[in-house]
Predict the structure.
Amino acid sequence: MSKGLKYTGFSLFITCIAAMGGLLFGFNTSIISGALLFLAKDFELTTFQEELIVSTLLLGALFGALMGGVIADKIGRKKTLFLTLFLFFIGVFILAQASGFHALLLGRLISGLAVGIVSMAAPLYIAEMAPAEHRGALVSFNQLAITLGILMAYVVSYTFASEGAWRAMFAFGYILIGAQFVGLFFVPETPSWLFSHNKKEVAEHVLHKIRHAQAEKHLVDLGKHEDVPTKKDWKELLKTDMRKPFLIGIGVAVLQSVTGINTVIYYAPNIFQAAGFDTAHTALLATVLVGIVNVAVTIVSLWLIDRIGRKPLLIAGLIGMALSLVLLGVAFLGSGEAAGLISLVALQLYVAFFAVSLGPVAWVLIAEVYPLGIRGRAMGIATFANWASNYIVALTFLSLIREWGVVGTFWLYALICFFGLWFVIKLVPETKGKTFEQIQNYWKK
């Protein structure tokens, strides 16, 4: 840690509480991968209905992300996190009690609203609480929480698989909702938002709690360099010095989805069954291994992101993802145990390269590149773009496999990874260790 700016244990505590939003994000998006194996049988779902159940959450997330930015700028980051818990609770309740296809769609839609809002609000909250030199690692805590939520969903699915208890799979979400609900009573609003809403004394008090040194300096910097959200409107996003960061944020957010990661998260058991893992149990067990790799490598990324930087991680990760997808396609050209083993290894490599690059870095970048005056709204649009592309990928994955085959589908995602590599090398700047002020000065130059 820097001698000039120490970070307190309290600040780590509030980071973990905020990142529980990521835990709910990961769990609610991924629990469907296990439950779907049993929902399809119990409700005699068609392939299109399965795709709808998976993708309806993403449709809700689209609107949640778009609304979330405005909400976070209006009522504050903390109250926005409370709002997501209310929506998560309603969504889980409907899903756990569902008696038909339409109830499942409604529950997934409401859960999606919560996921869309929290996917923007949690990294935004953490970014505004973190010092520049540790912002990458601390914002990446949210991505770690997402991967833990995904792994938790896989483990819960595997645990209840023998009984086919898909209602219990959904209901496990109550525990996570309750934990964050209690924790949020012990965390403050962000100093940036408080200062911008003329609550300087409260902002100063929060700064002294989360930072041992330079609290006054940071408060002065807020007054000198940060914009006031209540005085900004959507037109700010179209200003000349904002166009490039606005497009880069959207581009990175879209890349995170269209490179295919969500096909693995949502359809991993189906992929493994297609690769030769015959029973639901063995397919779910292989999926748990994917979740473990995702968590383990994300932990490594926390250590790397503020040392190596954002851009090098993106470049290395996209190359690795592309090659892993090519190998995965090759595996499906064969058959038998060897093909199944190669597909398992290729899928694990793909997830590992994603977890060290696009997984954490995308959320860090979109939390860094915008000024406070439009940060919530700009992040909301970038997150909306993320979920829009996520929705398209999830809705079309099974159909692509039916039309192009598994090999063609994964090779298409590999091609997109190579395009993403060009985009990162050409346009994305390095933001490692830079303050919000320095990043904004970079765009102005």
